[in-house]
Amino acid sequence: MTAYFIRRLLLLLPTLIGATLVVFGLTRIVPGGPMEKAMQRALAMGEKGGKDAGGSLSEEQKEQLAAYYGFDKPFLTAYAVWLGVWPREETKQFVKFEEGKTEMPLTLKVLLPKAEWKPGNAYKVTQATVSRDGRLSTGSEDGWKTVPEPEKQRVAVFRPQFNGILQGNFGLSTSYNLRVIDMMLSKMPVSLFYGLLTFILTYAVCIPLGILKAIKHRTFIDNASSILIFIGYAIPGFLLGSLLVVYLAARLGWFPTEGFTSEHFADLGFFGKIGDLLHHAALPLVCYMVGGFAFMTMLMKNNLMDNLAADYVRTAIAKGASYRRAVLGHALRNSLIPIATTLGGITMIFVTGSILIERIFQIDGFGMLTIQSIGDRDFPLVMGIIFIDVILIVLGNILSDFFVAVTDPRVRFE
Predict the structure, then answer these.
(1) Distance from CA of residue 179 to its chain's centroid?
(2) Last residue of a domain, which of 161, 189, 209?
(3) Residue 198 maps to which CATH number?
(4) What is the C-alpha separation between 396 and 394, in angstroms, rounded?
(5) Helix axis angle, 237-244 relative to 270-308, nearest 10°?
(6) How many beta carbons lie within 10 A of that of residue 184, not counting itself?
(7) Same structural domain, 124 and 210
(8) What are the beta bridge partners of residue 157?
(9) For residues 408 and 41, is the Cβ–Cβ distance under 8 A?
């Protein structure tokens, strides 16, 4: 069994590469990327400030933008740079030579370690000169590299550095100019809160309810609960959220209409903060649970009913076991095996977030971050989210296999 799980973990790498490669390819071909945004901003500034205010970008400025966002490289090379197996051309700049000059001055800037930052200055600045053939007068100790481009009368100057996913760098958001990893980590507590509560409440309620429905099959309790369950299952979570916001929050004022906490949350005491969190979370949690609630309850009920009709349960009762012992001691464990396959979803609670539900309740979580990154064409942020999602999904599937093996001793992964 150990060898099986090791093989599954080794498959994580090709799965991760395949998924991110596809998404990375889509980001290269869809319109409206960061370069188009920069051009639109320049055009807007030109319209606001007059025709001489830089309303359009020169070809050299466009090339610098392409180099900054990584669009100056072939597809596979750009992907390797993002992954961190190919050096990134840091602080790339183009030095344009004037007619008759063989050397041009330039300023070299190197970002210092954070511990060495000073107020208003985070860079080491060096003045240098570069010749037409690419010789740099200084700065070689910082690893600068030059590439002459005689056909364009210029020299490209940059620092090659491995600085991608493998080095822990997810890049900067093109919309907010913040580190992608910091943006994702800042949203995870909200997703963790809702994901963990949804996960616990779903299993804590659905498993006992499924057992009760199987034991009381075709009684009033079973029929009444089935009607309520399937009514809830038939209503999409986002539609239910809209109804709850309008009637219970906006009209009746029983619950807040939006947000994760109140504005005065920091001034509350410990129990006041807990109450405020639960008060804001009540309606979103109902919407999160409404879909999976019916599925989990009916899965538990149907599996238990199948096992109650099995020969080994009748044999246990014939040998003198009580009905309660036959249900809880024999049939229940086998009925939990299909439930165990869903336990791997616990890994997704770190990024769980319904985009529509979070938008309805204005919850600033991972789901809202996902839709914002797609809408803003924020490709580094999109790639970071996909990277984390793929890892958690694969780990969740492996975890599901592990729980099945623990629950069912007959399962042997070879």
Answers:
(1) 14
(2) 161
(3) 1.10.3720.10
(4) 5
(5) 140
(6) 22
(7) no
(8) 93, 146
(9) no
What phi-psi label fits residue 95: left (phi over 0), alpha (psi between -120 and 50 degrees) or beta?
beta
Q: Which amino acid is at 97?
A: F
pLDDT digits (tens, 9 = 90+) for 376-398: 888 888 889 888 888 888 888 88
In b/e form, how buried is each residue of 390-410, taking b as 16+ CB within 10 angstroms?
bbbbbbbbbbbbbbbbebeee
67 lies in the same domain as 96 = no
Both structure tokens of 406: 């623990």
Residues 147 and 187 reside in one and the same domain: no
The C-alpha atoms of residue 127 and residue 398 are separated, in whole angstroms, by 54
3-state helix, strand, coil split of the chain in percent (to 5) is 65, 10, 25
Q: Please, which residues bridge with residue 172 across strands?
A: 179
Per residue in 83-119, pLDDT (tens digit) is 989 998 888 888 888 887 888 888 888 878 778 888 8
| pLDDT beyond 70 at 50 | no
Q: Are 16 and 387 in contact (CB under 8 A)?
A: yes
Residues 272 and 206 both lie in one domain: yes
The string of DSSP letters for 333-379 reads HHHHHHHHTTGGGGGGGGT---HHHHHHTT--SHHHHHHHHHHTT-H
Q: To which residue do tokens 């973990």 refer?
A: 9
Q: C-alpha angle 219/225/226, rounded to 5°?
A: 90
Q: In the chain, how many domains are there? A: 3
Query: One-letter amino acid identity for 240?
Result: L
Residues 82 and 110 in one domain: no
Predicted confidence at residue 347, as pLDDT, reads 72
Residue that is written with structure tokens 């319209």 in the block: 47
Residue 263: which of 246, 282, 276, 281 has the closest Cα? 276
Quote the tokens at residue 138: 């200084």
DSSP 3-state of 409: coil
Indicate whether 222 belongs to any domain: yes
Nearest one of 394, 190, 207, 412 to 301, comparing CA atoms: 207
Residues 281-313 pLDDT 10s:
888 888 888 777 788 888 888 888 888 888 888
Q: State which residues form the domain around 66.
A: 35-86+162-169
